[in-house]
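ok so heres the complex, two chains, lmk if somethin looks off
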Amino acid sequence: MTLRIAEIFGPTIQGEGVLIGEPTVFVRAGGCDYRCSWCDSLHAVDSENRHSWAAMQTEAVWEEVQRLSGGQPLTVSLSGGNPAIQDFGPLIGLGRAAGYRFACETQGSLARPWFAALDTLVLSPKPPSSGEKVDWEAFDACRQAGAGARQQVMKIVIFDQADYDWAREVHSRHPDLPLYLQPGNPEVDPTVPVDLQALADRLRWLTEKAMADRWFAARILPQLHVLIWGNKRGV
Amino acid sequence: MTLRIAEIFGPTIQGEGVLIGEPTVFVRAGGCDYRCSWCDSLHAVDSENRHSWAAMQTEAVWEEVQRLSGGQPLTVSLSGGNPAIQDFGPLIGLGRAAGYRFACETQGSLARPWFAALDTLVLSPKPPSSGEKVDWEAFDACRQAGAGARQQVMKIVIFDQADYDWAREVHSRHPDLPLYLQPGNPEVDPTVPVDLQALADRLRWLTEKAMADRWFAARILPQLHVLIWGNKRGV
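and the predicted structre for the whole thing:
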């Protein structure tokens, strides 16, 4: 099985969502069926960067995960791009046999049988500010495919009021999916230092909005990796 | 039942630990059997502040929680000081009957039967830098008392290498308690603006240390409320 891999890095802590703070090795798949206006991982999305993605066999990816983690089992996060474009089933099989746990983050546009073998499936439908439009039939198929995963959650990035209203509506249709909200990060240039105060202000804005509306259904979390490392890659 | 209450505030997001990001109303109990050198809640600990703690009936506390949350069930965090000094059983009973969830954060020095009625018991034994010494028999009694809680976790604050080494040893004796590490915050004066870069640097220090040691057992999380609001009280 040949996989197109944009980067493999870690261990570091997961910066966002349900596994925030969890020691993790990241396997970032190359290629995406979306092109979100504010994408913070264009190096793994834009096909202009295709030349920089490695063609790796599953076994080679697994060896690199083991090398980075020193053979100590931890969580492996499959991200992208959209990792659901490719078949990570064999990698998950190798890793789980050795005690590793697997999480996958995907927008929910492509359902894969291997979702059922995950410990954590994070479905991250993209709000209006992304410029993308969610195919809810495909999303439901992802939920179905992931029904066997240990946990399945939803994460929504919020840039503005329209995104927020959309998230409330999506939650009302999927009340059983634990929901994580994340303030959007408009500063994604890895060469520009991050404005920590602006990051704190965005988290405060979203928190105060949800609390004022007495909307208590979602956890609200920042991106810790941006706090610690700015928009630097590979951390 | 009369309770000594330092403050009741929220809803806001839980800033730390296993429930990070979770909309929460905080009930901060007055009084503590510890006096940690770096305590960030001295207004609820130092008996010099006793005059500022309200003597409230359980029903009055419950009414205030309902008022702040607009009657929408959410998580109530019992903190302090050490909330285990007092009897929060009746408050938990009232709240749970109305669909509210309860978390309690305590150092684990006093076991209470009402721990079993909690959704989340956070045991937070204090490391050497606190100047306190853990009574492990009392800690074990707390674990026992909390065995009926929906979840029981451990949180340890890390200021320095000695704290870190201690946390590793404690974890080796309690490997089944999910562990959360939190870099210590030496800036606790509510009148002094927080240094966001220093906060990010402390999180990075602890993350890099654990990753270099390939110690993947603990989640590593900052205090979000300090990031958002500095050391201001009541948020």
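quick notes: The domain at 2-229 of chain A is CATH 3.20.20.70 (TIM Barrel). thats all i got rn
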